[in-house]
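Good day; I would like, with your permission, to put a structural problem before you. The record follows directly beneath this note:
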Amino acid sequence: MHFGIYTPNFGEYADPRVLVDLARAAEAAGWDGLFIWDHMLWRWPDHRPVADPAVALAAMATATERIRLGALVTPLARRRPWKLAREAVTLDHLSGGRLVQGVGIGGDWFGDYSGFGEPADDRTHAAMLDEGLEILDGLWRGQPFTYEGRHYHVKDVTFLPPPVQQPRIPLWVAGNWPNKAPFRRAARWDGVFPLARDGELTPADFRDLLAYIREYRRSNAPFDVVHRGNTAGVSAAADRSVVAPYAAAGVTWWLEGLAPEAGSLEAARVRIAHGPPRL
């Protein structure tokens, strides 16, 4: 199992210098990755400052050497797929092949879509996500690529350079369990980041959703399974007792969630410094 830190990109975490400091601290403390949210707006409980994920990740990449980095998750329907493809390849080269690209449909809770005149319905976003994934994969191959879809059209385009990582930058697909469609989608790519539609996912939930994904998986390539959880960072034995059942259920990445409700930025620094709950 790998261990990462998972931070917002808003509020206290909207300062890219803070994210750089956290990335350095995470690497020094032995964590395997640091991942950030991807929101355009944040309005709960009030308006908060927000950082651009690509710019923040670029700064984090230059400040670290080992840990994996990425946005979890980017609502692909909010982006032009070719622009995200270009950003991701540049970040992949800048980081020496350490980028993970998380994708999902996102939501319109704060007007991330509707506030800018974009369609806000999930069905449309899901269709755009499926097309966008095909475009990312096609452009990253570095060969002439053409695509004709309902939402996107690409005509004889060659993207260079290709990513450092081959056959592509890992694509982790998010979805709310027990909704099934996102997990059929995830089975086609490189990993899954499940969230609970109600409450928190249990190890039993992971066993169930992985059994479902295996029904649709057509590749023997490595497949990452990501869980956002929390450990106290006080007792190593207690932390391991929290993590171990998820590892046994098939989780390959434990992300320690540093959401605003979990405490102050100083508390986040303390938790990072304590190190990951390795088994």
Remarks:
- Residues 170-227 form one domain.
